[in-house]
Amino acid sequence: MMREFDIAVIGSGFAGSLMAMIAKRLGHSVVLIEKGTHPRFAIGESSTPLTNLMLEELADTYDLPFLRNLSKWGAWQEHHPDIGCGLKRGFTFLKHDLGSPFEFRDDRSNELLVAASPNDRIADTHWYRPDFDRFLQQRAVEHGVECLNECAVNAITWNKIPGTRNADYWGRGATLNVVHENSCHDLKVKLVIDASGPRGCLWKLLGLDEIPLVDLPETQSVFSHFRGVEELKWPTAETPYPPESAAVHHVFDGGWIWVLRFNNGITSAGVVARREIAEEWDFKNGEPGWRRALEQMPTVRALFENAEAVEPFRFMPCVSFRSAQVSGPGWVMLPSAAGFADPLLSTGFPLTLFGIKRLAGLLRKNPLDEQIAPGIAGYSEQTVCELAVTARLIAALYWNMNDFALFTALTKLYFAAVSFSETRQRLGKRYLGHGFLLMRHPVFGPSLRRCIDHAILHGQTNGTRSESMSLQASIQEAIKPIDIVGLGNDGRRNWFPADNTELFANREKLGASCEDVEQLIRRCGLERW
Fold first, then answer.
1. Per-residue confidence at 440, pLDDT binned at 50, 70, 90?
2. pLDDT (mean) for 132-157
3. Dist CA 91 CA 124 (whole Å)
4. Which helix (H) or strand (E) element contains residue 193?
5. Can you tell me the distance from the alpha carbon of 120 to that of 87, in angstroms, rounded to the nearest whole number?
6. Binning pLDDT at 50, 70 and 90, where does residue 17 land?
7. CATH superfamily for domain 2-45+128-211+321-380
8. Residues 6, 32: contact at Cβ < 8 Å?
9. Predicted confidence band of residue 471 (pLDDT cuts 50, 70, 90)
């Protein structure tokens, strides 16, 4: 029996379920197709202030008020204490010398702490995806989305008229042949949205090519969830935030280990490393590769000495990905399916939510026919551009993991750009079309690209110390026009708190007055406790 829907969304992770709900809110009939069932294991867990602001904007625009309760730690704990969640007050980086214990230094030259919030109440979160994704799928059902779990898409046939051009069958849609509950069904839809992740459903069914992300080293990963992970003891309590209540990055030459703690006793942890290291450490065999990585970092190994993996170890043979095509007549990929660079800076969530926002705007303004085609083309171009600039920044970081001073400087390009965008958003000034990482900012955009290009070349050619210092100075100069949180203050010695005095001091960069900043602090709860 043929069933008909306006839109089919493939994949019911958080992005697919959210996209399906928004499409339903816009008046479309929607089917959400999921090859498995919830709850299910997933990584990609760490939110950011920009992520949370995007959730709030989508909540308000599409009348999904429950999303606001998931945008801050305090509201989440008040309204949804049953959904696993982690407190994320900032980004913690520690540079390890392989084979040696980590040593805290007086000059803090081997650590970087960047606060994302001044208090727990408005802090960011780590999403325990088995709970979070299940919750969003349930909400999608409550909003009228039809969900098909344990449903495999066997084939897709485009409903074009013989002899016509591809562009002529926008709106004629496709027929999806699916296996559900041990029987085959056909679903006729006008638009297919792929939210099934990298190398996902449409990429496979359409036989699309994969394009390497330029200059980003090939990396592999092994990861799991654990119980019983100890916390690293710091020599002082005077840090900008509790350093373990963060996205913790243990960096070494050629890779890094992440540690994300949830409030249900589970810790997400994994290692990402360049292919040659991953092969030497035997990542492909799962736990042995993880153990080999811990052996190289005694301080991290001690944290996991009494820990137990509660999920099978997963091996990712190629972390980065970019599809050669992001859309076509009758189909489009969300950014999470179009490509991925690396989890290093927690960029996956904001990139995906930017894409959902753009795609939702197109669905809001256009019928599902050829009129939407130019908008989809623009969406695809923006998706590819944002992925490319993100991947090149991460490439620069990988190429310079042996030079932590330069690595630290490069992270400031990210932190300066996102903090500027976040604050502009809070002031009601939006993004002014500058895009993710302010890639289209008339001053910062070109400087960002120049600094990244020079850093990649420096790392690839083993540049000198003096060249590294010159590049660090160039980065400090590049962020000056948008640095509103004091990242250029060397006196901080790599500790950057959420300091409201910096907002007042840099208000002119934001086009804001003292009164504007005062109102922002009160309205957004940015006071320090």
1. very high
2. 96
3. 11
4. strand 183-194
5. 7
6. very high
7. FAD/NAD(P)-binding domain (3.50.50.60)
8. no
9. very high
Considering the chain, tell me which residue range(s) the CATH 3.50.50.60 domain(s) occupy: 2-45+128-211+321-380
Pairwise CA distance, residues 486 & 503, whole Å: 9
- Distance of alpha carbon 193 from alpha carbon 176, whole angstroms: 12
Number of H helices, E strands in the chain: 16, 21
For the chain, the maximum distance between any two Cα atoms, rounded to a whole number of angstroms, is 73
- Say which range, 168-177, 389-398, 441-450, 478-487, has the weakest mean pLDDT: 168-177
Mean pLDDT, to the nearest integer, of 295-305? 98
Q: Contact at 8 Å (CB) between 247 and 268?
A: no
Q: Would you say residue 82 has pLDDT above 80? A: yes
CATH architecture of the region 87-125+217-316: 2-Layer Sandwich (3.30)
User: What's phi and psi for 259, nearest 5 deg?
Assistant: -140, 115
* pTM exceeds cut of 0.90: yes
Spatial separation of the C-alpha atoms in residues 148 and 187, rounded to whole Å: 11
pLDDT, mean of residues 99-104: 97
Distance of CA 383 to the CA centre of its chain: 13
- Do 156 and 203 meet the contact criterion of CB atoms below 8 Å apart? no
Q: 63-72, long-range: CB within 8 Å, 24+ apart, which pairs?
A: 63/25, 64/21, 64/22, 64/25, 64/139, 64/143, 66/139, 67/18, 70/125, 70/132, 72/121, 72/122, 72/123, 72/124, 72/125
Helix (H, G, I), strand (E, B) or coil at 512: coil
Residue showing tokens 């003292």: 514
- Considering only CA atoms, which of 65, 53, 63, 7 is closest in space to residue 32? 7
Assign 186 a pLDDT band (cuts: 50, 70, 90): very high
Residue type, 41: F
**Which pLDDT belongs to residue 2?**
82
User: What is residue 222's DSSP assignment?
Assistant: E
DSSP 101-127: -----TT-TTEEEEES-SSSTT-EEEE
d(CA 215, CA 397): 11
HEC readout, 58-85:
HHHHCCCHHHHHHCCHHHHHHHCCCCCE
